[in-house]
């Protein structure tokens, strides 16, 4: 998977946030922020509340997420949900473990490194696309053009099948886990060039995540 200049909108690299739409459980959910700097996948409580999910599925979890501003947000639980990304007939479904927080955000989720590793997907903010492999070929999920209206007001979406449509808005912290992590050197020739991986990442995901980071080390380290 790769990107070319021909895929740039009007030939100009974008500086807008990359957000996609995906199915979470049976809910068509918009404004999912792709954030390669987040070591957890974040689900906001206001989004979860709209999904009508049995609260008994929420697992207890403790800790804090810390944004660039230094604001700490308490983790209120974790939940594993099926997530589908699709491009016409090309679709992939994976089980994603979300860290749940209760705070305002213009995004519904923050999809970080665990999501990217599980789907083996490649994001490009410049191209406003997320590419992902399927058995039938490479799919693409494209970000809506950024405007004040589509970031601050609900977006009308045509649902091709009977799904719930999730779209919330407010003010957003950029979140990343800072409670506990460990460092990994991605290039043996540059041992001081490291990335941090949270201990919240499931053990079965660490090896896959490290391989993804090594493959795209120019982006992450």
Automatic annotation (TrEMBL):
Q: Write down the superkingdom of origin.
A: Eukaryota
Read off the Gene3D superfamilies from this record. Acid Proteases (2.40.70.10)
Q: In its UniProt entry, what is this protein called? A: Uncharacterized protein
Annotated source species: Linum trigynum
């Amino acid at each position: 998977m790769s990107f070319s200049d021909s895929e740039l909108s009007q030939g100009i690299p974008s500086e807008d946030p990359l957000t996609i739409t995906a199915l979470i459980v049976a809910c068509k959910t918009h404004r999912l922020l792709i954030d390669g700097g987040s070591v957890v996948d974040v689900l906001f409580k206001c989004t979860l509340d709209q999904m009508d999910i049995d609260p008994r599925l929420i697992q207890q979890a403790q800790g804090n997420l810390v944004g660039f501003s230094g604001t700490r947000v308490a983790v209120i639980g974790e939940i594993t949900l099926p997530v589908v990304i699709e491009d016409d007939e090309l679709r992939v479904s994976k089980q994603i473990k979300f860290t749940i927080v209760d705070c305002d955000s213009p995004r519904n989720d923050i999809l970080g490194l665990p999501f990217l590793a599980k789907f083996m997907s490649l994001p490009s903010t410049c191209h406003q696309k997320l590419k992902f492999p399927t058995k039938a070929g490479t799919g693409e999920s494209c970000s809506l053009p950024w405007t004040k209206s589509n970031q601050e007001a609900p977006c009308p979406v045509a649902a091709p099948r009977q799904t719930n449509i999730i779209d919330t808005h407010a003010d957003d912290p950029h979140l990343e886990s800072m409670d506990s992590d460990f460092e990994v050197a991605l290039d043996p020739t540059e041992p001081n060039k490291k990335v941090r991986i949270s201990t919240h990442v499931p053990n079965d995901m660490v090896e896959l995540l490290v391989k993804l980071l090594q493959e795209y080390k120019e982006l992450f380290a």
